[in-house]
Structure formats: structure tokens, C-alpha cells
Amino acid sequence: MTDAPDAKHDSTAAAEQAPREPPSPAPRAPLPPASDAVRAEWGRRIEAEYRSAAITQHLTLWLIQMGASPDLIDDGLRIVKDELAHARLSHRVHARAGGGALPALRRETLGLKGGDEPLEMAVARAGVEVFCLGETVAVPLFKVLREGCTVPVARRALDRILRDEVRHRDFGWTLLRYLLELPCAPAVRQLVERELHAMFARLRRSYMPPGGAKRATISDDDRVWGLMPVARYGEILERAIERDYAPRFGEHGIDAAAAWRRAASAPDRAAAPT
């Protein structure tokens, strides 16, 4: 006995209308082994990005208090959001690498310290050291870190960070130009010329620690997780003097090369915590 034609049609239609199971996701490719160095470095990046968000928020508050350009204020607030996004992305990498809980950040490091000086001077000091120096060298640093990175979660993080760092760098130089157009410009210039060598010295301690030049290799597994040898940090910083700092400060009549030479001739000290 066979089904009637109408019954066949009804059963076929019902089968076509029945919900279908979604296809099973493709299995994830196994990740390269993550070393303690990978977990430590991405943990450090979480902290650095979160600290940058707090510092930028504080700097932007100062910009509001001094009645700065609305465009600068908007840019500062956008950078805060960027840094928090970077911290979240870095946390994902840290977790996929097998990282556990991190120690709480010291709250006293999550902000800027003002003094008795005019607010414009505090803004100039923070803007130059954090953005003109730190964010400017961050662009080539993250470019090199990204080039060797193939672990997808780490590569996505570095893609976003590198894209944003370009805008963060530009914010610093726009801020310096703005300050040098205010009535306080002579005092701002004096501050930068007086303190730039000390700022460079702190940058050297972070990126060129004693003995760092000898640490020129890392494993391929560490590289694909977005790490690079300590020696490369120093090389990139040295190159930034000629390619970035000297010409950019030179546009304002500030001799960055001389400040760098003075910083380089200072006695070596232990690397500052980062």
C-alpha cells in the first residue's frame, strides 16, 4: 500500500518547514603553547591599558577645567574608551593563554598628580610625556609586535590597538600645538625644554633596561602570541628619535636630539616598573 499523493505532499512540506539544526561550528585550531612570558606580558598590557584609560580621563578633566578646545576634549574622551577596549581585548588574550587572576592595580597609579603650578603646565607635562613620547613610539612598537603575531585572538587585539595608537599619537602633538598657541606658550616651551631629557630618561628605563640589548631572541611560540625580544624595544626607540621625535619637536623649535643625548649620557638605573 502506498501513500496518497496529497499525503506525500503534506509530509514533504512539513519536513521542509521543520526547523533545521544549525551546522556545527568548525572546531578551533589548537593554539600554540603559551609560555609564562606570554601570560606575564599580556597581563602587563591589561594593566597598562587600564592605567592609560584612567590617566587620559584625568587629563581630559583638566582640559575641561581649563576650557580647552571642545575637539581636544572629545578626542580625549574617545581615547579613554579606546584604552578600556584595549584592556578588554588584552584580557581575552591573557585568558586564552591560560592566565589567571591578576593583582589589583595600585589606585595611586590611576591618575595624574597636580601641584601648585598653573593647570596648563600640568597638562603640558602629562601631554608631552604620555602622548608625544609614549604614544608616538607605541605606533612602531605595536606594528612590529603585530607583524609576527598569528594567534587569532592576539592578532585581533593588536590590530585594534595599532589602529587606535595612531590617533592617540596625533592627539598628543595636536595638544602641544594648542598649548603653544596660548598666552602661556613661553612657559610651556620652557617646561618642555627643561624636562624633556628627564622624560626621555624614564622612557629609556622602560624600553632599554640594563642588559636588554643582549636579550635579542625569543621563541617562535612567543612571537606568534605577539611578543618580541627586549632588544627590539630599544632599537625601535632609538629609531624613533630620528624619525619622529626630532622632526616633530623641531617644528616647535625644541631640540629633542640634544635632550636624548643628555638622557643617554646619564648613569644607568634600574628599569622602572611598567
Automatic annotation (TrEMBL):
Naturally occurring in which organism (per UniProt): Sorangium cellulosum So0157-2
InterPro entries recorded: Ferritin-like (IPR012347), Ferritin-like_SF (IPR009078)
Protein known as: Ferritin-like domain-containing protein
Compositionally biased tracts (Pro residues): 20-33
Region Disordered, annotated ranges: 1-36
CDD domains: Ferritin_like
Signal peptide coordinates: none
Biased composition (Basic and acidic residues): 1-11
